[in-house]
Amino acid sequence: MLDGRAGGPPAERFGPLAADALATRRRDAGAQVGVRVSKAQARWLREVERASGGAADAGSLVRALVDLAGELDVDWASVRNGPDLRAAVRAAVLVRRAAPDPDQQAR
User: Fold this and answer.
1) How many angstroms separate the Cα of 44 from the Cα of each of 30, 47, 94?
2) Centroid of chain to Cα 46
3) Cα(87)–Cα(97) distance, rounded to whole angstroms?
């Protein structure tokens, strides 16, 4: 009764993504997609590309993020608009953040 299996819904379980979860490579991509992004998003994409020495360009990031979205536990049929989409994704994702820098907090 105390192990969580007696009559209730199954407990949520979080785990790492499988090694092949983000598997789409440029050579596997056969379709083109164009998206509009904000200035802040475009700046972030440029910063990532620069920081990675070009290994992570906008296309590779979009492919990885589409693969990631496919792994999310989201009821896509219930998404009716942009706010629904953002709320569903927020609810499906836990984000690992770096520990705060104690030197920065002391200031």
Assistant:
1) 25, 5, 20
2) 18
3) 20
- Give the C-alpha separation, 78 to 95, whole Å: 23
Q: Model-level pTM? A: 0.71
User: Measured between alpha carbons, how far is residue 31 from residues 42, 59, 72 in Å?
Assistant: 21, 11, 22
Q: What is the pLDDT of residues 15-51, one digit of tens each?
A: 788 888 888 888 888 888 899 999 999 999 999 999 9
Quote the Cα angle for 36-37-39, to 5°: 135
Give residues with Cβ within 8 angstroms of 70, minimum separation 6.
Answer: none
Report the amino acid identity of residue 29: A
* Cβ-based neighbour number of residue 79 at 10 Å: 15
Rg (C-alpha) for the chain, rounded Å, is 19
First CA to last CA distance, the chain: 50
- The DSSP secondary structure of 11-77, one letter per residue, reads PP---PPPTTTT---GGG----------HHHHHHHHHHHHHTTTSS-HHHHHHHHHHHHHHS---GG
